[in-house]
Design a protein that fits this description.
Number of strands: 8
Radius of gyration: 16 Å
Shape: globular
CATH class: Alpha Beta
Number of domains: 1
Oligomer: single chain
CATH architecture: 3-Layer(aba) Sandwich
Largest sheet: 8 strands, mixed
Order of helices and strands: EHEEHEHEEHEEH
CATH topology: Rossmann fold
Strand content: 15-25%
């Protein structure tokens, strides 16, 4: 079993498209996909709009997508792309540790797994960690900065990677394999081959 983690430095830069694309491009992997969302940061987990709609009623929720479910959600897109199972894990900010027993339980009964998250790297060492970067987006999540040095490769969206992010050292990305992708596919043959090779070696 291989575990692949896709992270990135901000919202809406193509992370979900990379995950869905890899699921579709590598059907032989029989993926179980995980979308991990931490809420309480002022954005709605449903659609990303600013809100304060979350409550303290629970600290963790896990939803398994159904074939007849909403294919427009991130986890729904994974299932539509060909994932064997797709799970949406939601926790409050700073509470991801409480979800790890459930995540590990699901991983134990999975074949290959692909997870969209940065923060999961606090608790596990995946076989492949890819970080999606878009030089046109100034925001840089702290979770992405903390784990950037652990990235096995970088995926840069459409534009040349000329980092100018405040507090992010160019040393963190120097020398790493770099795959340039474009919307709407956010994939390249080289990226697919890289992941296929790493999964086979796991």
């Amino acid at each position: 079993m291989a575990v692949v983690v896709i992270g990135g430095h901000s919202r809406n830069i193509g992370k979900t498209s990379v995950v869905a694309g890899l699921i579709a491009a590598l059907p032989e992997c029989h993926w179980t996909a995980f979308k991990i969302t931490q809420y309480g940061h002022g954005f709605c987990t449903a659609d990303g709009a600013p809100c304060d709609c979350q409550t303290d009623e629970h600290t963790i929720a896990v939803t398994a997508e159904r074939p007849d479910g909403d294919a427009s959600t991130d986890s729904g897109r994974y299932l539509r792309a060909g994932a064997q199972r797709s799970l949406w894990v939601r926790t409050r900010i700073g509470m991801l540790a409480t979800a790890m027993p459930r995540i590990r339980k699901e991983l134990a009964v999975s074949g290959n797994a692909i997870l969209e998250s940065n923060s999961i790297l606090q608790f596990m060492k995946p076989d492949v960690y890819l970080s999606v970067l878009d030089a046109a987006t100034a925001d840089f999540k702290e979770s992405a900065r903390l784990f950037l040095d652990r990235a096995d490769a970088l995926i840069t969206v459409e534009r040349p990677l000329e980092p100018h992010w405040k507090g992010v050292s160019a040393k963190l990305i120097k020398g790493k394999p770099l795959f340039k992708v474009q919307a709407p596919t956010y994939l390249s043959p080289e990226l697919i081959a890289f992941v296929r090779e790493r999964v086979a070696a796991a």
